Predict the structure.
Amino acid sequence: MQRWAEFVLRHRKWVIGFWGVVLVAGMMLAGRTSDRMTLDFSLPGQPGTTTAQEIKSAFGSGGDTSPYLVTVTLPAGQTITGHEKEVAEVFTAVGAAIPNVRVIDEANTGDRAFRTKDDRTAYAMVFYQFNPSPTATLLTDPIHAAAEKAKPSGATVGVTGEDTLASGGDDSGGPGVLGEVLLGALGALAVLLFVFASFLAFLPLVVAAVSILATFVMLLPLTYLTDVSFIVQFLVALIGLGVAIDYSLLLVTRWREERDHGRDNHDAVVVAMQRAGHSVVFSGVTVAIGLIALIVLPVPFMRSMGYGGALIPLASVLTTLTLTPAILGGIGPRIDWPKIRHENRASKAWSRWTTAVVRHRWLAAGTALAALAALVGVFFGIRIGLASSESLAKSGPAYEALTTLERGGVPTGALTPAEVLVSTKQAKPVAEKLARVDGVSQAFVPSGPAGNRDGQSIVVVIPDKETVNSQSVGVIERIKDATKDDPAVVGVTGIGAAQIDFMDAVYGNFPLMLTIIALLTYVLLVRAFRSLLLPLKAVLLNLVSLGATLGVMVLFWQDGYGSDAVFGIAATGAITFWIPLMIFAFLFGLSMDYEVFILARIREEYDAGNSTDEAVIEGVGRTGRLVTSAALILFLAFAALASGPGTDLKVLATGLGVGILLDATIVRMLLVPSMVSLFGRWNWYLPAWAARPLRVEPSYPHAEDPRIKDKALVG
């Protein structure tokens, strides 16, 4: 790091010029990168996806989509009976106006289940062709317009469905990526102004802007090699903002400290790079490990988030270790004005706090572990799946249309029907068999091209309840069991089948992913801390912290204790299937940042000759405000992310935000100092046999005067 710092300082104008070019290129290419991203959650090779592809190939629509439900409600005093022809013409008009759709209704099934009990409302299912472009608009308006034009006099029409309910009928998409970044940046600037109390507060923001745009530049070639999920752009923008600011904040704070200790500007930059820069490298690699581990999952969109996400810490580390020292080496002292806050000694408040924690370490550790254990216990009640229809919308035309159907006795399973691809000759016997499966409301084979083409037919199965989570997909399991030995059945697909496939493909591989992350992180941290025990504690505490974070999400979102008050969204009933994995992958590395920041400074103080307790007090005293500020900046970035479109993005953002705060408070400021104090001399062992393959010096505890502990705790 010393040699690298000297190189950057000698060529700082070239370094700044290089990043200036990257900045301009990023502004030019960021839009193209976003346009090339996709909205595709398919699971290649899984039974449901394979069947869905065959349905799309043969029928042109459906398979992996939940249908739109189009309703026609006749005026008071009129019934569907006697007006079947006029109602059927409405649904026929929708099929004629919208390309590549299949319309399933009473006319082509002969099933009166497509009416409400009061005989005033009829509905049809409209299966459509999925468009993977994130800029694609919903078909709600075109479908409604076609139905409106053909409706009987005095009738009202409505359009509902999972997608329409989730959007609330609003395709505006929230403030957009740029708007969210600006929101996060304003919050970060407020924190940085408090931390630095000088114009130096703007430096981390400049570095973050360059880092974000550099990530978009690096991401563009990846979009030509593989599909990249549209979610990555939000992660790059908001998580990239927080991570780059955090790393730059760490380096600038250490530079300031060295300046306040009397070093000239050149030496202050070099020492800051040696100490804080070293921590930045290890933090960046740790974050990248958690994300790269996603590539072991056989799911393209998860892999793309792993590839794309790993570019975030890479760009943040590169900009922090080149652009930040280049600017500090040139105009750093001039922009550190007015010089109100000084860094020449540890924070008195944090030193007093840590002294109290060390003095009462058993109580501190026990209290923190009890709180985390309670939240981890809640986590075991998690349901994996999709948000229920009750949480998607509470008002609007789509909500009203669904309410009309529910009051009329139509099961919510109509929102998520299963499609069973079968041989046409055996379609009716299969439908009769599936209608008798426990949890199935109706099963029918549409006549004509809507359900029969080239010797294949689709049996549409409506469950009693929507199949959106790990507890409600039992009926789909029973449907698959009932058809698995039938040679006439090609396969079962639909939203419920996709849930089952994802659980098998992803969570079945989760132990492998967890093992890879834990082992690589442990080895990396053994090298960073020169200890066998400290990294083990760090990995285990991270896992406990993640379990507690998911416990908070179960309470907040799944059970609804807070989601309605904060976001106006009712209890989701489940956590979206891909979100726990993303939270694990991101938080494992992001929260480990703070572990690295704190323990690296504690290790430095111990190597300087302090006792374990003195090193803990001084280390946390030096890093407490830094870690708290960094966590708050990331939290504000996630708060901005929560303003994005859709419930899923809000769930992800709140999970990341809560996880960061939980980790930076209970874990890093209570558990870490208390447990390091409890372990005492055992923290500092790295025998020669373990140090040799890692190419670091072995470590053994130095002699500690037993009186030092008492001195540290009282003074």
